Amino acid sequence: MKATEGLTYKDPTFSDNYLNAYNAGVIRGAYHFARPDVSGGAAQADFFASNGGAWSRDNLTLPGVLDIEGTCYGYSQADMRQWVLDFYNTYKARTGRDVVIYTSPSWWNSCTGGWDGMSALSPLWVAHWTSAGSPSIPSGFPFWTVWQYSSTGSVSGVSGNVDRDRFSGDRSRLLALANNTP
Question: What is the pLDDT of residue 157?
Fold first, then answer.
């Protein structure tokens, strides 16, 4: 669920959605929509961690997600890598968790140069809308953890389109990700 964007936006439906998911026993997570054009990665990670991106070991809370897509915001590949690393380091210091990276292969390859510096640190949530058996993944990542395969799904009780995703493992692996256990 979207929690924050940039340095000032807080999704007005986040708190209710997050609590309702918890009360329904749904494994849930929060994401931050990156806006490198408005501030550095560390400042945005602090904002996210303070406004919905916190984590607790409760069998229902996934680590926070950095949603980074769109344009390269005028950054060089080296500067974008540093922005992502600053976000990661600050989020990790605040929550004790590795942030999940949500991106598309085209964005990651173009804006970071297919950087492999996050592959050992962060699970990959790849956006690749296709009905094929598996997604394309960004250079620098050996595999995907979550795959967003559609933005036009439906879910009972939710009006309008919703994203549809697949997790790469079984429920025990999803709980391990939620609880930060091997």
Answer: 72
Specify the pLDDT at position 158: 73
- Residues shown for the chain: 182
DSSP letter string, 56-83: --SSSBPPPEEE--S--TT--HHHHHHH
- Token output for 152: 């036009």
Chain-centroid distance, C-alpha 160: 22
The three-state secondary structure class of 110 is: helix
The 8-class DSSP code of residue 9 comes to: E
CA distance 127 to 129: 6
Task: Tell me the C-alpha distance between 9 and 15, whole Å.
Answer: 13
Neighbours of 131 (CB within 10 A): 6
Decide if pLDDT at 131 tops 90: no
Burial (CB count <10 Å: 0-12, 13-18, 19+), residue 8 = exposed
CA distance 179 to 119: 20
Please give the model's pTM, rounded to 2 decimal places: 0.95
Write the Ramachandran bin of 180: left for phi over 0, alpha for psi from -120 to 50, otherwise beta. left
pLDDT tens digit string along 77-87?
999 999 999 99
- 88-105 average pLDDT score: 97
